[in-house]
Amino acid sequence: MRPYRVLGNIPRKRHMRFQENGSPLYEELFGREGFSGPSSLLYHRFMPEAAHDLSEGTADAMTIDREQVHAQGHLKGSDLAIESDLVTGRQWLMVNDDIKIGLALPARQQEALYVNGSADEVLFVHEGSGTLHSQFGSLAFGRHDYLVIPRGTVYRIDLAEPKGTKVLCLEVTGFVDAPPRYRANNGQLTEFAPYSERDFRPPVQLDAGSGAAEVWLKFGGHITKYQRDQHPWDVVGWDGTIYPIAFNIHDFEPRAGRFHVPPPFHQTFNAHNVVICSFVPRKLDWDPDAVMLPYHHSNLDSDEVLYYVDGNYAARRGIKQGSFTHHVGGLPHGPQPGALEASFDRPRETDELAVMIDTFRPLQRTTLARQITDREYPFSWHTGGVRGTTSIA
Ligand SMILES: [Fe+2]
Known about the structure:
Elements: E1 5-8, E2 19-20, E3 23-24, E4 26-31, E5 39-44, E6 51-59, E7 73-76, E8 90-95, E9 99-104, E10 113-116, E11 120-127, E12 130-134, E13 137-141, E14 145-149, E15 155-159, E16 166-172, E17 213-219, E18 222-228, E19 235-240, E20 245-248, E21 267-271, E22 274-279, E23 282-283, E24 303-310, E25 323-327, H1 339-343, E26 349-350, E27 353-359, E28 364-365, H2 367-371
Parallel strand pairs: 10-17
Antiparallel strand pairs: 1-19, 2-3, 4-5, 5-19, 6-18, 7-25, 8-9, 8-28, 9-16, 11-14, 11-16, 12-13, 12-15, 14-20, 17-18, 21-22, 22-27, 23-26, 24-25, 24-27
Bound molecules: fe (ii) ion.
């Protein structure tokens, strides 16, 4: 997904003496899987470890809901309130050990430099724009961009305007990358992939910070505040394959078929026990006898979350922009009553825009998710007659 890149000045060989104006530069390996995986090498003006104080910060505000029933969910994300900033204002809705899923609706700019030490982050910018600054340089982003930020990236996101910004936030325990089936043996994306390396935008200009700096390190949901001797954006150059990227969802090339194509054709990112897909506007199912809707399905090994971004969701009733659906393992789901009949006269195309997250271990909803739950959604496939009065609240 990320091709090898160079930005700034680097020495001719790895691990050789390197100076700037007579002063030594300090090489840092930014590596996955210890020393054995993909990596970048950064060259700092100051020792990257140097700190003179640390203190406890805040923790992710999140309480797991102890549900007494297990039901399909519609979470009304548009009911969430504007809160805090893009780092501390993440409102977590569904979590497990592999991923946290939530929304951020920031009221103000990010306060401090921030680094996630235990998760890769995928931020989908539903609304808003700005610049991601980090030790890798500056990366401008806009509406409908995914930002994929490797753990260890010390960043600050400057929003063009906090008000109105809406970001789907995913913190992923595994390494977020393109699915292996999209890559050739040498790692290059193949002709069969729904995107190419050209679609992934890297940082383009090195950032320069100076002086002491406070950095918030989040590890396992807890923040530790580090007082660094020097600003971490002191890099004169780097090279490698681990760095933040932006990818616009409209650069995902959709697949369509004479009959319905299943979600794996829409897969965008991959991580351990997590799949992220993009549903983008596309032609649909052009055989005259094709059913132009998803078929009912039981995902026997996964929970399925859809985040609705834009367009018309023909198969879902009551869903709007900012909604999440959570279809849980053990139950089938599919189009609701009336959707099939309504599809007969529609043009064979869709303008839906959505992000899907499949998790291969069950998700738990938070108490915040309970507060925005549509109580009627589990019964939205019910066709007439009296239904039980048992509350799921
Ligand atoms: Fe589904």
